[in-house]
Amino acid sequence: MRRKDREVLGDKNIAKIIGQCTTCHVAMMDDANADVPYVIPLSFGYNLKDGVLELYFHCAHVGKKLDCIRKNPNVAFSMCVENRIEIHEDVYCKSGRFYASVVGQGKAEIVEDSAEKCRGLSLLMERQSAGASHPVAPHKFEFTPEQAATVTVFKITSRNFTGKAKPKA
What we know:
By secondary structure, the protein is an alpha+beta fold. The protein contains four helices and eight strands, in the order βαββββαββααβ.
């Protein structure tokens, strides 16, 4: 990382950033257009422990994401929290946005184990409902194997991710 002064270290600090994000952009390779990555924004759930980040996603049983993952499980991801912009009227080039982000690379895999699918869906719902102005938040969500069978769950496991932030002064 070029700007070491903006690097965010430690699971706890990175989890604080991830906890503020609602969308994760996942990039994967598409064999139909092998020279260009395919990027898609997705809702997610996560688990971060001992430097291992697991990101959980759900989708239909068929589709481009799953085709890409089956052919090449190597993916990249990005998520961010954008805050207000700071405008320097005297020198516009010094203007910038306050932000926090987590980016990384990992391996994607389709989750076959029913218990892990239920856990992944629970993490996803808990993440998406956090901070929502909804009567069920905060809430623990539990899924049955029958419910989990109606969707495909895939996860990205990463040990190669970084946090970066330009906090408000």
